[in-house]
Amino acid sequence: MDDADRESTVRAIVGAAFGAAGQRCMALSVVVLVGDAAAGKEWVDDLKAGASGLKVGCGFDEGVDVGPLISPEAVARAEEIIARSIDEGAECVLDGRGAEVAGHGGGNWLGPTILDLTPGGHYDPKEEITNSAYTEEIFAPVLTVLTVPTLDDAIRVTNANPYGNGAAVFTSDGASARRFQYECEAGQVGINVPVPVPLPFFSFTGNKASIRGDVNFYGKSGVHFFTQLKTVTSNWQWGRGKDLGGVTMPLPGKK
């Protein structure tokens, strides 16, 4: 939201998107900016400035923020999706392709990359988002951004996505946070929390295509999953000797 604290929000988004080189299941991959196009451009510029300051390199080296991807194939796949996204109309605000790290030539390097799907304008939430950077899970330090006019539009875009593992809203307005909390179709919702992964005693749950089976793991669902139900029916014959009673179903009011 345009009323969110700018400095802390940018810092949180940059960390959630590019930490662990974007290779975690709950990495922040899409940001929906709410407000006019000019304000959206300012947010994109701030995100670029924050991401540009990250250091790419070996995780054992001091001061490194973004390590390598897991394999050369992962780099090739991410770079192919980036190129395809640009061909489909995205603006590459920050290009991390071809990153080099001194002393580690030939490594699986990909620097922070930001793709703007609505450069200088707004996305029409009535249209389907077909850009490859949005429809495919890149699993790399790549952040996709788009701008919409209102919170209603942002919720509509979020709910139109076939997946619903987690979503977050950044705002200083309690009413906006409450609306997002109740109307967003995601299993885990963060309010000013970029990666809304709960502690183990709460449920880790997806929504829509982000869930398989009848129950989730963690929390009460996890207890239920690992619980074997047992039903015991007993009949104690105190003081009745060998009288085992009848074999018919007892009826109310009948001896």
Automatic annotation (TrEMBL):
Coiled coil ranges: none
Keyword check for Calcium: no
InterPro entries (UniProt xref): Ald_DH/histidinol_DH (IPR016161), Ald_DH_C (IPR016163), Ald_DH_CS_CYS (IPR016160), Aldehyde_DH_dom (IPR015590), MeMal-semiAld_DH (IPR010061)
SUPFAM superfamilies tied to this protein: ALDH-like
Keywords, ordered alphabetically: NAD, Oxidoreductase
Record's keyword annotation contains NAD: yes
Residue ranges of domain Aldehyde dehydrogenase in the record: 1-232
Descriptive protein name: methylmalonate-semialdehyde dehydrogenase (CoA acylating)
Species for this entry: Thalassiosira oceanica (Marine diatom)
Taxonomic lineage: Eukaryota, Sar, Stramenopiles, Ochrophyta, Bacillariophyta
